[in-house]
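Q: What does the predicted 3D structure of Membrane fusion protein look like?
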Amino acid sequence: MQEKNTSLFRHELFESRQNQWLGSIQLSQPISAALVVALSVALGTLAIIYIAFGTITKKAHVSGITTPAQGIINVTSKISGIISHIHATEGQEVSEGDLLFDISSDRHTSLGDVSLMLNQQFSVRQESLEKELYIKELQMKEKKQSLKLRLKNLDLEDQNLTQELKILESRRNLANLTENKYSLLEKNGFISSTQTQEKKEISLDLASKEMAMKRSKQQLQSSKIALEEEISSISSIFEMESSQIRRAIAGIKQEIIENQDKLKNLSNATKSGVISNIMIKPGQSVSAGQLLASIVPFAACSQVSGGKNLQCQPNKNIDLEVHLYASSKATGFVTPGQTVMLRYQAYPYQKFGLRKGTVVDVSSTPFAPNELPANMASTILSYHRAKDQNPSIEEALYRIRVKIDVEGTHFHETSFHLKPGMVVDADIIQDNRRIWEWILEPAIAMSKRI
């Protein structure tokens, strides 16, 4: 009799599970040989085309910062004193000559402000010299007027002598004629010699008077010349003395101006631009040469067409350029005109993209760390260390100036303007080559050497 199965599962189920360790049945379907060959040919063709026509770009990876093309102007204090008033604010546009800061002198003694007392003394000296100059001028005018009056009298006397000399000359001529007539009558026996002698004495007396009058006229002429020379010398002496006094007055005025400048120094903008980095507050003490603020200058001008000529109109934009600093290893093949791809740290390139620039020039000599711009040195060196470029303390860096094609970046129709001091990563495109040229470069170089 057949034995009854009391299990919940069939016997075949257990047998099938006992054979599972042998694995399942797999039906192999090999790939067609033609398909393998076709794929291999296609891949080989693509590789050859890529090697033949593909290019590799050689780049120099450097870093730097944005900086105004016109530079940054530092406003410093000329004197030691106290900031009494600040006329500018951060970011304010200023024009050349605009007043920025008032600095008052802090020189005081028990008698009062030193500068004020000096100004008072200078004013007293100036007033005394001006009074002396006025008195000398009056004396010179009075003496000159007196001499001119004497000269005028001499002129009148000279004119009178001239008239008298003409009359005397006429009388002498008449006396000579009379003497000649008497001499002729004496020869003919009409008169005595005594009468002739009398007429001769009259002629000699008139001749003597004429000679004396001529001597007087010569003396008068000499006196006139002496007076004219004295008048001229008075003017020269006065000019010399007045020049000395005026120089002394000018020196005092200069001392007053310098002392006034020390009393209250006015710091003005030396160039038009935008105020930045105001370092002080009202009431703060400053020393001579201390940095007060910086000015980022505007662009020089914009060229606009005005007929046949180009005209220059004011431009209130701030021109920025990128100064890249790199070691000699990175700058070996950098030349002006090369294209630069810029990545601003403030605007990640993954989101805002890259910006183009052009190399303007490369410094002929490197900058030592202590020769880098004072307001940028720490940023440049710290960033180089952070990028593991590892410039040592003694390592010098070359400066690469880059002109930015577009001074800004855009995202979703929003414009973001660049600011001075932004850190920039840059790739300088130095060379484009075919892949096959790059592969065969060692062989080509060796053949050239041979």
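A (community wiki): The structure tokens above were generated from the sequence. The longest strand covers residues 55-68. Residues 114-188 form the longest helix (75 residues).
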